[in-house]
């Protein structure tokens, strides 16, 4: 059992576990802190900087990212003052400027009061990736396929597959595109196409669960839950894997992908 | 031979000094990076041959040292006990140097250092103001010892601090002494070293590490490389003391992370580590004390950001050298998630002196909050460039105008940039500030690693800010939003200003970007990168306004804003400008005032450079 501590958030005293990520405390207490690069199942990457809050100890204070800041006893946290808001808004404005045509980002920005950006896009039509790292994180840490990574630094940084080729190790699980807040990540669709072209339609599929076949029985009359490929995948990824949750949501909705 | 007690260490020192008694003269040839580049190896060959030919090898000791500190006059030779320094030495001079100075004891004024300003020639090394104005503590031995011979270091008192730490002090006492000295990290942040060591000592775990940061990626700074080249055992001694203090003995250990572009420093430090092992100063049971500790070398990842503590440790582990959030400090969870005490080369170099002579003595130099001396690398538009070690209570002015001799060629000093590519620019009105950590921070600049760049009146401050932003954009790892997007945006806006395409609102936008990056970046690269922009807006706002509103560049640097014209009163009609102009934009009759056709002019600046009469205006 972790030690229980007390911290102050926006003048409320709340209890928390020692060194628990601040975002968890905020969520529990119903305090809204936006995030773009955070997911419970992935090690915090802490790069989008939209979850900024301020911590003070006496007269000293510091801006920290809520998604990975481990709280300590008597931390005084401020999630809504003007300076905090302006730091957050600027990060949102910058990402909106980078990806002006990504609808999820446009919606996210608007919901935080940012509807235009002074940052012009770096390429015509804008970028399709905010470099949040969720795809890389989920593929490496949760799926274990290690099919994605980052390349280059600074302005040239981008998400790539090993050696820039379509990775054999990709299992077309779709976790990356499920988590991607933009339209960049379409790995499983591509992989699906490759598999289809290689095996034709008679291949018992591993991607049936992805919502192509509501009810979990694929076109080959395979019961997907018994399909060895998918079984194996479940072993690697675990039942709570975001993609299983995502898939369930999709299949229950009955939509074909 | 492995030394197994402090007495044996003293014996080595005595024996070595005795072995030198036969020598009447010591010739120290600088083998530092600059002198090597300037041909010191040829000088060395000639010198060796000459000494052999004259049968002097038994009375003259010839050593190759690390950087002696006056790199602008490379290659250097110093001769002792005569206290002579010869500059820009050529192989052809050697015969005369040996016959006149070595044999007859006469100094040759022609070869000595001559001050380019007042023409004074200095026949004594120790009287050259560039050196006599300094307080050389860390660099004291650099011009005199052979870095490849551990006995030389031992003979000048080397490893005595280690013996004291190993046999007379408890780990806690070592940490207390370092805390009492007030030593602050020289890698940039100025973090109190004693406090870091105390946390390291307290952190739970049997595998602990001490790491030396020799990544030194700041352009123009080379104090760390120079220390490693000229006195590698000083760093090794500091690290062993640190290892005892924090408990990083085996199964833990030490690492030195050396910048890949430092081949000489790399080979010197590897050689020194091997020597130290051979003499029982590294490895099992050091000096018979029971402490076992060894140091390994790691070559840097090649990027500036790899010098950042968390990126450095990731790189040591073989991962990409990218920073990670530091809410858990590296002294608790660093290299392989084990407690790791990381200090800069120069920080480690301070340790033996503090342990041997005590914290009180250390505090005789510098200020209360920034005690001791600091090595600065002085570059840019200044007469004497090089490495300068001074106490931290000296002013920027005494460094730049005193030791550095001010701006050359009668130009006026305009600004001094401290702290490397993420430091701030101080205007002339701020030159009386002390060079200590806190004063520089308050002025909107920083100490950084100690790089000092001097700028004269021909500098455009907007252009300078843009230059540093470009450097940081190239070096940013690109992980976090404010650094990656903020730097690109700053670069875009500043470029607009230099092209006369900006509006006054853009200044506010730049300031806002700066505050966002300072508050929002993941690591200190991005959080300090706005300094050059914010400090130039603060101190040189009028210059920005002239660019934006007046479409003029007062420094005459920003190409888009320059209009060349002939100043009629000065033009003699010599025609030099016509000869150099590649597009035929300048024309005129001989001995008559010339003129420039701006439609043809490509702003190549050739006429401006060619005119001997300052008749081209821009
Ligand atoms: C971008 C960046 C580059 C750095 N490069 C260096 C470096 O080359 N050498 C160094 O000693 N410290 C460097 N630092 C500082 C280190 O992160 C760290 O603070 C320092 O090595 C700690 O040692 P100290 O306490 O002795 O200064 C750098 C920091 C940043 C943010
Ligand atoms: S679809 Fe492929 S790339 Fe995407 S997470 Fe799954 S394995 Fe990784
Ligand atoms: S592709 Fe999508 S998930 Fe991956 S880094 Fe870019 S925006 Fe994030
Ligand atoms: S501040 Fe810059 S260098 Fe540091 S982590 Fe962020 S992007 Fe990388
Ligand atoms: S070089 Fe100078 S002085 Fe000579 S013609 Fe050109 S402008 Fe006149
Ligand atoms: S959610 Fe915290 S930095 Fe992205
Ligand atoms: S390298 Fe010779 S003086 Fe610096």
- The strand count of chain B comes to 19
Instruction: Compute the number of strand runs of chain A.
Output: 7
Coarse shape of chain A? globular
Protein structure class of chain A: alpha+beta
Characterize the overall form of chain B.
Answer: globular
Instruction: Describe the largest sheet of chain B.
Output: 5 strands, mixed
Determine the N-to-C terminus distance of chain A. Answer: 43 Å
Low-confidence stretches of chain B: none
Walk me through the structure:
The complex is a heterodimer of chains A (257) and B (618). Chain A is built from 8 helices and 7 strands; from the N terminus they run E-E-H-E-E-E-H-H-H-E-E-H-H-H-H. Chain A has helices at residues 22-28, 82-98, 103-111, 134-143, 175-179, 187-199, 228-237, 242-253; strands at 4-9, 12-17, 52-57, 60-65, 76-78, 149-151, 158-160. In chain A, strand 3 and strand 4 (60-65) form a beta hairpin. The longest helix of chain A is centred in the middle third of the chain and has 17 residues, at 82-98. Residues 199-222 and 249-257 of chain A have low confidence and may be disordered. Chain B has 618 residues and is an alpha/beta fold. Helices cover 39% and strands 13% of the residues of chain B. Chain B is built from 25 helices and 19 strands. In chain B, a hairpin with a 6-residue loop joins strand 13 (413-418) and strand 14 (425-427). One iron/sulfur cluster binds next to helix 4, helix 5 and helix 6 of chain A.
């Amino acid at each position: 059992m972790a030690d229980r501590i007390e911290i102050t958030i926006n003048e409320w005293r709340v209890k928390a576990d020692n060194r628990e990520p601040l975002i968890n405390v905020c969520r529990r207490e119903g305090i809204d802190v936006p995030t773009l690069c955070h997911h419970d199942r992935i090690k915090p990457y802490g790069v989008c900087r939209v979850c900024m809050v301020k911590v003070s100890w006496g007269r000293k204070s510091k801006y920290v990212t809520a998604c990975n800041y481990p709280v300590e006893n008597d931390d005084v946290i401020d999630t809504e003052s003007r300076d905090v808001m302006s730091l957050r808004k600027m990060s949102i404005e910058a990402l909106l400027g980078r990806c002006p045509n990504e609808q999820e980002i446009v919606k996210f920005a608007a919901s935080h009061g940012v509807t235009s950006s002074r940052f012009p896009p770096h390429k015509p039509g804008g970028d399709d990736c905010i470099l949040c790292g969720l795809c890389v994180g989920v593929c490496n840490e949760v799926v274990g396929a290690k099919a994605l990574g980052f390349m280059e630094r600074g302005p040239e940084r981008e998400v790539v597959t090993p050696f820039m080729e379509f990775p054999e190790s990709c299992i077309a699980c779709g976790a990356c595109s499920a988590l991607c807040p933009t339209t960049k990540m379409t790995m499983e669709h591509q992989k699906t196409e490759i598999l289809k072209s290689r095996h034709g339609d008679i291949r018992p599929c591993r991607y049936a669960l992805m919502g192509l076949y509501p009810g979990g029985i694929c076109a080959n009359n395979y019961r997907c839950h018994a399909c060895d490929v998918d079984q194996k995948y479940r072993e690697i990824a675990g039942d709570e894997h975001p993609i299983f949750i995502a898939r369930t949501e999709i299949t229950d909705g009955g939509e074909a992908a | 031979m492995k030394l197994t007690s402090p007495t044996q260490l003293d014996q080595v020192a005595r024996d070595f000094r005795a072995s030198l008694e036969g020598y009447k003269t010591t010739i120290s040839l600088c083998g530092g990076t600059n002198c090597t580049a300037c041909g010191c190896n040829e000088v060395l060959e000639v010198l060796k041959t000459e000494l052999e030919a004259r049968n002097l090898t038994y009375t003259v000791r010839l050593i190759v040292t690390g950087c002696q500190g006056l790199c602008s006059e490379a290659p250097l030779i110093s001769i002792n006990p005569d206290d002579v320094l010869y500059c820009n030495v050529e192989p052809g001079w050697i015969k005369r140097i040996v016959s006149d100075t070595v044999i007859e004891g006469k100094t040759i004024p022609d070869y000595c250092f001559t001050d380019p300003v007042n023409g004074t020639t200095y026949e004594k090394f120790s009287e050259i103001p560039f050196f006599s104005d300094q307080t050389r503590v860390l660099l004291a031995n650099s011009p005199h010892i052979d870095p490849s011979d551990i006995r030389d270091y031992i003979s000048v008192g080397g490893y005595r601090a280690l013996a004291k730490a190993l046999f007379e002090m408890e780990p806690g006492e070592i940490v207390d002494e370092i805390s009492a000295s007030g030593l602050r990290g020289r890698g940039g942040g100025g973090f109190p070293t004693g406090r870091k060591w105390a946390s390291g000592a307290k952190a739970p775990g049997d595998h602990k590490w001490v790491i030396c940061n020799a990544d030194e990626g700041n352009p123009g700074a080379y104090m760390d490389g120079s220390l490693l080249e000229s006195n590698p055992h000083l760093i090794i001694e500091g690290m062993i003391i640190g290892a005892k203090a924090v408990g990083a003995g085996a199964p833990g250990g030490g690492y030195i992370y050396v910048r890949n572009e430092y081949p000489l420093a790399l080979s010197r430090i590897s050689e020194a580590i091997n020597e130290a092992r051979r003499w029982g100063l590294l490895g099992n049971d050091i000096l018979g004390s029971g402490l076992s500790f060894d140091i390994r070398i790691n070559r840097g990842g090649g990027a500036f950001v790899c010098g950042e503590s968390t990126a450095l440790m990731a790189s040591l582990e073989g991962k990409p050298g990218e920073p990670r959030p530091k809410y858990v400090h590296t002294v608790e969870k660093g290299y392989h998630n084990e407690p790791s005490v990381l200090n800069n080369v120069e920080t480690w170099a301070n340790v033996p002196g503090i342990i041997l002579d005590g914290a009180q003595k250390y505090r005789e130099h510098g200020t209360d909050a920034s005690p001791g001396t600091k090595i600065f690398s002085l570059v840019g538009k200044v007469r004497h460039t090089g490495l300068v070690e001074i106490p931290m209570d000296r002013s920027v002015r005494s460094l730049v105008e005193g030791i550095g001799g001010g701006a050359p060629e009668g130009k006026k000093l305009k600004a001094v940039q401290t702290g490397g590519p993420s430091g701030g620019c101080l205007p002339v009105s701020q030159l009386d500030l002390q060079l200590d950590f806190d004063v520089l921070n308050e002025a909107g600049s920083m100490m950084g690693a100690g790089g000092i760049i001097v700028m004269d009146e021909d500098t455009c401050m907007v252009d300078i800010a843009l230059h540093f932003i470009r450097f940081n954009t190239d070096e940013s790892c690109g992980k976090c939003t404010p650094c990656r997007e903020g730097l690109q945006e700053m670069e875009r806006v500043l470029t607009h200003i230099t092209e006369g395409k900006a509006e006054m609102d853009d200044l506010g936008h730049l300031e806002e970007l700066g505050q966002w990056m300072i508050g929002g970046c993941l690591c200190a690269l991005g959080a300090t990168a706005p300094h050059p922009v914010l400090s130039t807006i603060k101190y040189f706002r009028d210059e920005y306004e002239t660019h934006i509103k007046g479409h003029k560049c007062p420094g005459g640097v920003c190409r888009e804003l320059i209009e060349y014209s002939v100043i009629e009163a000065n033009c003699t009609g010599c025609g030099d400008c016509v000869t150099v102009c590649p597009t035929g934009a300048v024309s005129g009759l001989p001995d008559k005032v010339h003129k420039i056709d701006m439609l043809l002019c490509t702003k190549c600046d050739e006429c401006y450079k060619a005119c001997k009469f300052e008749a081209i205006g821009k």
